[in-house]
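User: My advisor, Dr. K., asked me to get a structural model of this assembly before our group meeting. I'm new to this, so sorry if the format is off. These are the inputs:
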Amino acid sequence: MDFVKYIDLLRKNMKTLKKVLIAYLVAVVIFDVVLPRDEAHAHYWIDKVFAFWTVFSIVGCFLLIKIGKGIAHLFLSKDEDYYG
Amino acid sequence: MDRWVHPAIFFFIGSLLLPFVKGKAKKFLILLIPVLSIIDVAIMQAGTYGSYQFLNINIVVGRVDKLSLVFAWVFVIMAFLGALYALHVKEDGHHVAGSFYIGSSLGAIFAGDYLTLFIFWEIMAFSSVFLVWYRKERRSIEAGFRYLLVHVFGGLLFFAGMMLYYFKTGNLVFDRIFPDNAGIAEYFILAGFSLNAAVLPLHAWLPDAYPEATVEGAVFMCAFTTKTAVYVLARGFPGFEILAILGTAMTVYGVFYAVIENDMRRVLAYHIISQVGYMVAGVGIGTELALNGACAHAFAHILYKALLFMGAGAVLFMAGTAKMSQLGGLYKYMPLTMIFYVVGAISISGFPLFSGFVSKSMIVASAHEKGRLMLMSWMNLAGIGTFLSVGLKVTYFTFFGKEAEIKPKEPPKNMLWAMGLTSALCFIIGVYPKVLYDLLPFPVEYHPYTLPHLSEMLQILSFTGLVFFLLVKKLQPEAKLNLDMDWFYRKGTRVFMKLDERVISVIDSFWGELYRIVGLNLLFKNARISYGFDRKVIDGVVDGSAATVRGVGSIVRRLQTGKIQAYIGLSLFLFFLILWFVLRGM
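Assistant: The format is fine. Below is the predicted structure of the whole assembly, which you can bring to the meeting.
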């Protein structure tokens, strides 16, 4: 199937793909900075900080993984036949 | 149209005809049942139907308004997609259980009083458990029993609340309850409803049972139980602050477990808790926008969550396992399944142009509008976890990642068609949200495609993706079991059994011995005296009554065959007799 070939093509060109994705991430942040913020939607401080959700996502995602895996290893994870 | 046909009828009667047809006719019938119900819902007019008096209680079987119709719509659509997905299943019992489950869910959402609701509520639990048991593995049978016991407990909470409510108000009308008037009765009912919505801490039954269900059964189960509960909460308890808080907590709790779980279907099951959390929070916030959001999200969620369960089920069906620690590189072997799964994953994550973007955001926006920034932030954190777990982690470790030894093929055609159709619906709702918004209970003034909203979602999704690829090694799925609230009853019952063995049974046998020695002697003596009295005095006075009783007894004895099939047959017959009496009045 052609679709599989496209994916294989992308996987072969990981370096270029990475550059494109980084450019995309920069574009997303720029989009949020230049975005017109009308008073009707921006009631709260959360709406007025530039790229607020960028920082929120990076910190939030990092904490979710670290805390999730941390607690799992601390005491939540047991062997699969724990209940017998 | 002034006559109303309850859509549940098609499912109840149609499924019982299944064992009598064979081959293509059977497949046709399996698909015909939901098609008829879709037509029925399409021509349905708002109103109150099937209302009558029973033991001084006003029973309403058919309350048709915008709120019940939006749920009916998605239920019958899902019934069709699920039936198509399960078309290859050979066991009639599986189809019958699925149909009774869907029929009773429809019964619950059209119920206008607590008694009718309760009856359908219980049929739901008792029919859906068979979708777990039909997996026919030891783990499933055990999980099914736990599922049933927890739901019986929930049903009892509801029942206790219902009784208290009756003594308080003298009726069983199921309508909106205001937080200021709510007493112990209402809170019992709320607890019973919340258990079915998997509200913390009454949620553990869901990730316990759903991953153990059959491939096809899980697709049905993820749609109906929790969403019926969302409906009854939206009907009865809008504006309850506790729901706003617990719902938001659910959103994060669900993704937390989804991030660390290994089994694809268990990730999805935990993720249901997160998604239903949004809906419960929407009900708790209680504004028109929030309630619209809860309904819209229930509608969209049923479709994409079913799509995800179909995808994960297809992997389990073809590869024999859904554990990501044993999977990888499946994009080469199951590309179509992967595309459909990814459509579900980006819908649930709220990508623009897909259904989650237009539904979930209504609830987040309603929190924002009321200035509940904490709720909004927690929900967006859950949004990050959604994309991280269901979107990236499952897709990466199942379809990409390190190639595993398992090389499965694409699933049967009916499964692919079901996934394809569901994907199409997710896309249609995303690009043309008006079809969904028109069904909602309140007029919609909300526009999802605004620049700030687009920017917010793009930032959340893009940078979650970035962190995922930076930390992907940390997320490697592990073949482990994660403890949850079910620990209390799974380990707790063992403590009870030990107590029973060591203490209660010892006391019991001591008591038995004592009784045998002391009690029985006294009893025999007493019996001898009363026998004499009975024979000489009583039978002499009421002459012939003993003979009559013996005669009736021999007839009853013949009815009691002791065969379980005969009892089930008799009960079903009586059930339909009652149903006929009830529906005749409409």
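One thing worth pointing out at the meeting: The interface with chain A takes residues 255-256, 259-260, 331-332, 335, 339, 368, 371, 373, 376-377, 380-381, 384-385, 388, 450-452, 455-456, 458-460, 462-464, 466-468, 471, 474-475, 478-483, 490 of chain B (CB under 8 Å).

User: Perfect, thanks a lot.
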